[in-house]
Amino acid sequence: MSSTLIVVGLGNPGPDYAGNRHNVGQMVLDELAARMGATFKKHKTPNQVAEGRLVPGGPKLVLAKPGSFMNTSGGPVSAVLGFYSASPDDLVVVHDELDLPFDTVRLKGSGGHGGHNGLRDIIKATGTNEFARVRIGIGRPPGRQDPADFVLRDFSPTEKRSLPNLLADGADAVEAIAELGLLGAQQRIHAPS
Fold it and tell me: Is the pTM of this model over 0.90?
């Protein structure tokens, strides 16, 4: 485990998208930044970046929100890895996941993109699918609603009541990766409660 962890929260830029389900990765980064007492600032790479540590002596966390739209996340991710001389082994991508029920967090170490265009572009730009993912469950759209429309809508009033807990769980998962590495974090987060 590196002394610097690059944590990327996927989403779309701008206030119109801020509350969308697709932006839950960036919402988790806001929670992490608050825990570290860090603020997002413009960066030399096409990202908003906040840096800090969750615990004294712990790994440095570089929280990055790509300044591009979801489907072109790869360029900003590649740029931030290059800026910090980091490899995909040091990368944690936090993203929305249709295939998990709402209010569920799961960790994954590699694999395909599962139809997620942000992950698809990161895999293409970095040339690997070997990076950690924190998958934040947003559930499937109701009825016949198009998944593309569903992810670009805000959470329902019922979901909004549980959202702070989901974001805290996502941030806890990143903290566990920083503290224990991916395998140890999976054992902690996936353990039945």
Answer: yes
